Amino acid sequence: MDHNHAQAAHSSQHNPKINQSDVMDHSHHQNHASGNSVSHKGHDKHAGHNPQMFRDRFWFSLILTIPILYFSEQFQTWFNYQAFQFPGVVWLNPLLGTILFFYGGIVFLQSARHELMNRQPGMMTLISLAITVAYGYSLAISLGVSGMPFYWELATLIVIMLLGHWIEMASIQGASSALRELASLVPSEAHKYINGHLTDVPVASLEKDDEVLIRPGEQVPVDGKIIDGSSSLNEAFLTGESKPVSKAKGDEVIAGSVNTDGALTIKVSRTGEATTLSQIQRLVEEAQTSRSRFQNLADRAAGWLFYIALATGALTFIIWIFASQDLQQAITRTVTVLVIACPHALGLAIPLVSVNATAISAKNGILVRNREAFERARNIKQVAFDKTGTLTEGKFGVRQVYSDGMSKEEALKLAAALENRSEHPLAQALVKESDSQGLSYGQAEDFTVIAGKGIRAQMDGKTYNVGRPEWIDELGLEFSSSLKSGLTEAETRGESVIALMNETKVIALFALADKVRQSAKDTIHALKTMGIEAIMITGDAEAVAKTVATELGIETYYARVLPQDKANLIKKLKLQAPTAFTGDGINDAPALLEADLGIAIGAGTNVAIESADLVLIQNDPIDVLAALRIAKATYTKMTQNLWWATAYNTIAIPLAMGAFAWAGFLLSPAVGAIFMSLSTVIVAINAVSLRRVNLKS
Question: Which residue among the candidates 299, 386, 514, 613 is catalytic per the annotation?
């Protein structure tokens, strides 16, 4: 068993968030002709459909409907006019009605056949039953049976149904455009260096370690690292931030970003399915085809509604045929019940909210791997964060400079000049801090590495040592009490310390620590205002953990937690309250699976991504807030749509049966179709309104 399959098996057995139906359904999802669909048991009616098809059939059917209405006996009576007469006029409506039934209604009839073949009758079967009864009865009357035909009701019913499905398909297509937008970001060709010469080659042919030139204005074809040049890249597709990001030699570039000004030469690091963009596409597609508890509930309700409508329609026919002795009235009531009971709004209530939420999230750098995450995230009361790389930057920065006999700036300049040639992370942190302050420093001479201690070099004819504090005693140097106090403070905080020494004494100490993200502070503060407790988990020592927790304002933290113990800790936290876990590393995968909500940050590792419910593309914990906001808003919209769709059918079906006939209130099939379509439009508008949610506030 390979790693991915082993992980999938582990997920399905031990994680309640992942169930076998999710896995089994994946292979059955079909795409719209225009893109990824919202595919599920109650909504596969649109497999192979697209908005253009419904649009074309709607306009053609509307053109046919106008003369049908004009020549209808009911309309002539209601509006007191005499239609234009010509030989054979009595056969005009039957002819137009037949064309309309087979051209406009064929999509419903075909979908009903698929539903019945799958033994899952639903809304398309109901629509087909309604228009078939209306057409068959009308045709029988045209052929000699006594009664009043339903051609105008048939025409308006088909037209309104086509309009409703056109609106639905257009909404779904618009919300599902994320995949198509992402797919269009990668150019088809790249400028590859072959034996020192540039050659245009297909992007698909690029391999790892190939060198590629990216000219100003071009899109980056693959993930890679800059080996020559500097520029600014627009990564809005990835982060939602329109401001270009400065890039220089050694920086990573992501496929799909746009090179704005300078020419760049990159070495390919990932191609094809391994690129960040391809992973995003896959995750968006998985999320749009995943199912949720609410969606399953809506599907089951829609299925049951078919049988309820069928039974209610039969009951309605029996009651009215006995009560009125009028076959046409009985059929009219029955058709109205079948039309108004179509579980269209119910079937659309959850999928359209989900697909909108997924697309909105993707545009804001939040990828949803499991739609059920929307429903679970609303209850989160604790968010546990891995420290390194999540709350902190995962790299050292200078927190404090302690100096004796010179200013802090002079000490930093001198240390940077001495350490400039060192590759050690702590040395580079000093150089970077000096650069960030705009300090200019010279070049040291006679640079020598003293193994296990530090470096020795000369500056302006004087010899200096830079290295571990333990080196001070070995050299027998003078060490002032103020600097000793600084060393004690730094060690208490669990920080790393670099000493700057001349030939006689210690000049300065530099306290370095993993830098806390400013956005992490903002995140913790915002979580508190939302009534959510932030918890920090780290493998670092108690002193380091306490320092970071204090700086962030985190009250609960766990230090010296081994990677294998993170999942057990999350399990214990879950007993207290619903818990989310945010991490970015391979060792975070078990904890991400164990949590009620797993959030992988900064795209992290493949293993972390596969274990998470949500993936935050930006390496920024502030997006945890946006994820929780979109989840809460999504849950609210799902609930509102379910309540509306259920309430609509509860009220509409008795009206369609003629419950208020005693008061002279009766619904025609056409009015029933209008009410049904209106319900669908309301659900669609409510789902689309999700786009107004402010995720960045």
Answer: 386
